[in-house]
Design brief:
By secondary structure, this protein is an alpha/beta fold. The protein is about 40% helix and about 15% strand. The strands form two sheets. An eight-stranded mixed sheet has the order 4-6-5-10-11-9-7-8, sandwiched between helices.
Length: about 475
């Protein structure tokens, strides 16, 4: 039973159905592994040991009665940004370090209704602000491929848990690349759906027009199983899209012959490290052998994406985080002298350095006299980026690029230079600005650290992304590799 974590979601479901192992045995194998390995990785903030075993027993009863659910008995983890009733929900911050949510997010409810088993809540950059998972109040997460290196962020805990075999798959969120970048750095498949495809109700907000829930998994097939249960319209979320959710698991079986893949001149005119260049070249050869057509395209406003993002995201963050005032919930300073002192000391004590930096930038961008010059102009430029993508998708089905500029980097090497850290998201941010779905999949290694390939599709075309990734993985082995423990 010790190697059950290596089975795909499909294989686990078949094993549970055939009684090769029980839900309790599967869940316990993960809990044992978490206890043994996670102290070195720090991927979990909370492990819900008792609740997981209760859910496993309930799953066993459903199997006995032939009343199984889509993900019955599959142990997963939730990023600690999704509210879960009766369970600590911290968002990786001291501000919420003792907050037990009185309700569950729509995502958490959907997975409960799918029969999955929640192993716990994963570590993350504080309020999802970071690209390395070093800003968490609960300490940095280690990359399971090399514990001196970062797993990426902000969903680094979710990525590290799946890459270490401490969860079958995990929920995650992506504001500027926080699913895809850690997927690349940890050798996983990570999908950010179209904005509005997955409900944001009960998902603690960072930048509301950019945040999107998604999945981190070992393979595109596993991601398809997860997204099928996770996606769908939610009347409690005003940005939720009322459109039918395809059967992603069935969709991935379709061929990709004739699929048109675009290479943006603005990305590929950059100077890449040789190993990144080689991995992309080899990946393109795989797609060509499968019958895809490779085309050069232009996205002329792509270079504006990073500065646009770092005006809009902090501005929205400053508005969203104003609710943490020490009055209603969360951390509260002791013995405040007056209301101003309550606000100031609560926020000084409760927020970390990166969160404070972004709140200050955002407040400045929204202030009188600067709103038109910064925030309004950024929103206009954002539309230019979105228009470029729409024009490109008239001639191609997918847009391909590296996911990150390189492999992972050592813990502590970029924390003193915020701009250098922000550049880690240079390839992923454009999809968020345009509200487009994107996926990262493993495409090689360098110095025993994974490399990632990104595909972006048009709105609501997650099926094409998953299909292309699945066929790529049927013809490569990168997604099957595990870190050595």
């Amino acid at each position: 039973m010790s190697e059950l974590y290596k089975l795909s979601i499909k294989e686990k479901l078949l094993g549970l159905e055939s009684s090769s192992f029980s839900s309790t045995e599967l869940t316990q194998s993960y809990l044992d592994r978490i206890k043994k390995i996670d102290p070195e990785i720090n991927s979990y903030i909370t492990v819900t040991h008792e609740k997981a075993l209760i859910q496993a027993k309930q799953s066993e009863k459903r199997y006995q009665k032939n009343l199984t659910l889509p993900l019955d008995g599959i142990p997963i983890a939730h990023k600690d940004i999704f509210c879960t009733e009766g369970i600590l929900t911290t968002c990786g911050s001291k501000m919420l370090s003792e907050f037990v949510s009185p309700y569950s997010s729509t995502v958490a409810v959907k997975f409960e209704k799918s029969g999955s088993i929640v192993l716990g809540k994963t570590n993350m950059d504080e309020f999802a602000m970071g690209s390395s998972n070093e800003t968490s109040f609960f300490g940095p997460v280690k990359n399971p491929w090399n514990k001196k290196f970062v797993p990426g962020g902000s969903s680094g805990g979710s990525a590290a848990s799946v890459a270490s075999g401490l969860a079958s798959a995990a929920t995650a969120t992506d504001t500027g690349g926080s699913i895809r970048q850690p997927a690349a750095l940890c050798g996983l498949t990570g999908i950010k759906p179209t904005y509005g495809r997955v409900s944001r109700y009960g998902m603690i907000a960072f930048a509301s027009s950019l945040d999107q829930g998604g999945v981190l998994a070992k393979s595109a097939e596993d991601a398809a199983y997860m997204l099928k249960s996770m996606a769908g319209y939610d009347p409690q979320d005003s940005t939720s899209l009322n459109v039918e959710v395809p059967d992603y698991v069935a969709e991935i079986q379709k061929k990709i012959q004739g699929l048109r893949i675009g290479l943006p001149k603005e990305f590929f005119s950059r100077s890449f490290p040789k190993h990144v260049e080689n991995s992309i070249k080899e990946s393109l050869e795989v797609f060509e052998k499968l019958g895809a057509k490779i085309l050069d395209i232009e996205l002329p406003h792509l270079e504006l994406a990073l500065p646009i993002y770092y005006v809009i995201a902090p501005a929205e963050c400053s508005a969203n985080l104003s609710r943490y005032d020490g009055v209603k919930y969360g951390h509260r300073c002791e013995n405040p002298k007056d209301l101003d002192d309550l606000y100031m000391r609560t926020r000084e004590e409760g927020f970390g350095a990166e969160v404070k930096r972004r709140i200050l930038i955002g407040t400045y961008a929204l202030s009188a006299g600067y709103y038109d010059a910064y925030y309004l102009k950024a929103q206009k430029c954002r539309q230019l980026v979105a228009n470029d993508f729409q024009k490109a998708f008239k001639s191609v089905d997918l847009i391909l690029s590296p996911t990150a500029p390189d492999t992972s980097f050592e813990i502590g090497t970029k924390t003193s230079d915020p701009v250098e850290m922000y550049l880690q998201d240079i390839f992923t941010i454009p999809a968020n600005l345009a509200g487009l779905p994107g996926i990262s999949l493993p495409c090689g290694t360098h110095n025993n650290l994974p490399l990632g390939l990104q595909l972006v599709s048009n709105t609501l075309e997650e099926s094409i992304l998953l299909r292309a990734a699945h066929h790529f993985q049927l013809n490569t082995e990168w997604h099957k590799a595990w870190p050595f423990f």
